[in-house]
Amino acid sequence: MTQVIATAGSKDSSVPLVVLLHGRGSHEKEIINLADHLPATVAYAAVRAPIAEGSGFAWFANRGIGRPRPDSLAETMRWFREWLDDEAPEGRPVILIGFSGGAAFAGGLLLADPDRYAGSATASPRPPWKTSPIG
After folding, report:
1. What is the DSSP string of 56-105?
2. Strand pairing class (17-21; 43-47)
3. Who is most buried in 4, 64, 85, 96, counting CB within 10 A?
4. What kind and span of H or E run contains 29?
C-alpha cells in the first residue's frame, strides 16, 4: 500500500503533527482544508485511506456500517503506524483528527496504543467495536 499525503502548516519536524483522517468515501484533499481554520504553528498531514471505496477511499472493510472487519482494521493500522513512525518518531507529539470512518479509525489507533498519541478530536464517529464498552 502506498501513502498519499497532503500537507499544510509548519514544515518544522519538531512541532506537533496533526494527522487528519477523512471519512469513508472521501480523500485527503478534502480534509486537508480543515488546516486553513486551525493554528499554523503545527504541521498537518492528511493521509489517504488505502482501500478504494466508490469515488473515494476507506480505512477498513466493513461488515456493516460502523462494524469494521477486524483483519482489515488491523492491517490498515499496521500500514498507518509504519508511515507514522517514519514521519513522526517517538517523542514528537501526534494528534489525530478524524471524521466519520476516519474518527472510527482514530479510535482504533488510540485503543491499540494510547501512549503514542498526544490527543484526538473526532467528529461523527462510529466506535471501532461491535458494542459499547460502557454498556
Report:
1. EEESS-BSSTT-B-HHHHHHHHHHHHHHHHHHS-TTS-EEEEEETHHHHH
2. parallel
3. 96
4. helix 28-31
Give the tens place of pLDDT for each residue, 47-98.
Answer: 999 999 989 999 999 887 767 888 999 999 999 999 999 999 989 999 999 9
pTM of the model: 0.89
What sign has the CA pseudo-torsion 39, 24, 116, 10?
negative
Name every residue whose Cβ is closer than 8 Å to that of residue 86 and which is 6 or more positions away in sequence: none
Q: Grid coordinates in use for 20? A: 487528519
Is 45 in contact with 17 (CB distance < 8 Å)? yes
Q: How far apart are CA 66 and CA 28, in angstroms?
A: 20
Nearest partner of 59 among 124, 2, 4, 103, judged by Cα: 103
Angle at 123 between CA 9 and CA 47, to 5 degrees: 45
- CA-CA distances (angstroms) from residue 73 to 45, 59, 61, 102, 129? 20, 7, 7, 12, 11
